[in-house]
Structure formats: structure tokens, C-alpha cells
Amino acid sequence: MTAILDVRDLKIYYKTPVGYVKAVDGVSFDVKEGEVFGIAGESGCGKSTLVHSLILRKPPMVHMGGEALFKGRDLMKLSKEEERRIKYTELSIIPQYAMNALNPTKKIKDIVWDLAREHGAEDRREVEKLLRERLRMVKLSEKVADMYPVELSGGMRQRATMVVSTLMNPDLLIADEVTSALDVTTQRVVLELLHYFMAEGIVKSIIFVTHDLALLDKIADRVMILYAGKVAEIGPTEEIINSPGHPYTSLLLESLPKIGVHYKQTKLRGIPGYPISLLNPPSGCRFYPRCPYGMEICQHVEPKLSAVDDGHLVACHLHGGESNE
Ligand code: SF4
Ligand code: MG
């Protein structure tokens, strides 16, 4: 499969009065055409920063190095005009708080028309026809087109936002924590819709960002686990879930409630400690302060990603990978 997005050694920092926060610090991965690529980790691991830097980069976010080749073009080098042009048409994002993302003062059809016109559409009737068709596809009434976002329930607004984000058939759709504020039933609807967008060829690939590994099992072909701005592990979802290679992934998985077991009988094992400060991250493995298996070497030598299986890479000295130093 060809890669639609190829990210190499990307560094995205935040400029603050006390120095740079190294939110994304040398991350590499690719997203293939036709796949759902999951990105997971605790809040603050850099996953939102990473995906937002691809299309919505603005101060205090600073690109410090590396590249993100999208269909051959480096997203880090696009002009504001080029960025505006590809947004929605080639690369689209459903934001984290999708339910509140739509302009409350405009009807859905006007929001969509503004967007389409900005991208060169001329025939308003055509655009509205497509909107109504897509609303029906996601099992919303066509009447939603004539409504204001505030007139819709949370779940309906979520679906309407998904229709708006995908109306121009973007090649790559980024879904950033789109399910986190939703109840389980609405979550399921959102996952079904994403599958449907792929199956219908409305989008070619999806990056699905979440802190919930259990969801990735339902949607992602491959998963990347981020910890403190670095890739901890990357590989096929099934393998990551069934035989995680990084201690952090194992702990994340252990902290999930078990299906079919009453919550009172499950001992949720949180991960002890807190993520390190990304202002002055220590040398060596960033997970060392919280890792139950930390060794001498982990304190001062940064583990490099190395293959433990076909397409399964882990950055941990337990796997005897070479070091970065
Ligand atoms: Fe733990 Fe060392 Fe592996 Fe880091 S490199 S996750 S500290 S064992
Ligand atoms: Mg986030």
C-alpha cells in the first residue's frame, strides 16, 4: 500500500516564556492509503499537537524540524494559501470538541456554502443537494440543513460536523478524540460512520486519535502509542493489543476495564506517577520514572525504535534495540 502521509522525525514545540515545550519530539510514522491509523496515549502525550500541526499549525506551536509529506508535499512548508486550499478538500480534521465546532450563528447549509465557496464552488444548489444527500447518508433528516447547530442534540451535532468535515471528500480525515465526550451508543454511531465514509470512498484514510485503546481495537488497522512526545510503539492493532512490546502500552492496556466483568470486580490499575515535564525532558527513556522494569541504561540512553516483528516497532531497551547515542 502506498503511504498517503509520511512523517519523518517531526519536531513540534511550544514556545513559552520559560523555554520550549517539546510536545512532539522526533516522531516518525506513515499512513497508508485505505487504512485507519490510530494514535493513542494519555492526555499531554503530544497526539493532538501532532495532528493539529499538520493542518492547523499556529503560534505558539513551532515547527523545529522534520517533515510531513502528504501526497508528496511537505505540509510543514505549505504557504497559508496552500494550507487553506487543501483543508477540507484533501486533508480534513474533525476537531476534539466537534459538538461545539460549528458556528452557532449560521444554519448548517450556510456553513457548508461558505466553505464550498471558499474552495471554488459556484453552484449553491449543487452544494445543498450534496449536503442533503450526505445528511440522509448519516441518518439525519434533510431538514437539518435548514437548522442552526444549537437546535440539534449533541449526537446530531456530532454527525452534522462529520458531514461538514467530509463534504469535499478529503483523502485523509483526522478524527481527534471525536468520541471522548459521547455516550457509548453515540460512540458506536461515530465509529460506524467513519467505517462508512471509508467504505463509500468518501475518504481514503483516517487518522483516529484517542486516549482509549479499547476503541482502537474496533477501528484501527495499525496503532502508534505516544509517550511524552515520542513514539513508544507502533504496529498492527491486533499485535499491539495482544502482545504489546512496550511497558507503557502494557500498563495502558491493564488500566482498561475488562469486558464482561462487573466494575466492582475489576481492579483498575492506573499507571503510577506522572508524565515528565516536556520543558526539560531527561536524557534516556522518558518513561523511566514510571517504568516497573527500568534498568541502569534506561536512565541515560534513549531507546531507539526497533523491530520486534514484521511492522511492529518498539522503543525500549528490554528489546535490546540499539540506542540513539
Ligand atoms: Fe522501561 Fe527502560 Fe524500556 Fe524505558 S527503556 S520503557 S525505562 S525498560
Ligand atoms: Mg487532545
Automatic annotation (TrEMBL):
User: Carries keyword DNA damage?
Assistant: no
Where does the ABC transporter domain lie? 7-253
Coiled coil residues, start to end: none
The GO biological-process annotations, alphabetized, read as: peptide transport
Extent of the signal sequence: none
Q: Which molecular-function annotation in GO is an example for this chain? A: ATP binding
**PROSITE patterns per the record?**
ABC_TRANSPORTER_1 (PS00211), ABC_TRANSPORTER_2 (PS50893)
Which keywords, in A-to-Z order, does the entry hold? ATP-binding, Nucleotide-binding, Transport
KW Ribonucleoprotein (keyword) present: no
Q: Name one Pfam family in it.
A: oligo_HPY
Q: What is this protein called?
A: Dipeptide/oligopeptide/nickel ABC transporter ATP-binding protein
Q: Could you read off the lineage of the organism from its UniProt record? A: Archaea, Methanobacteriati, Methanobacteriota, Thermococci, Thermococcales
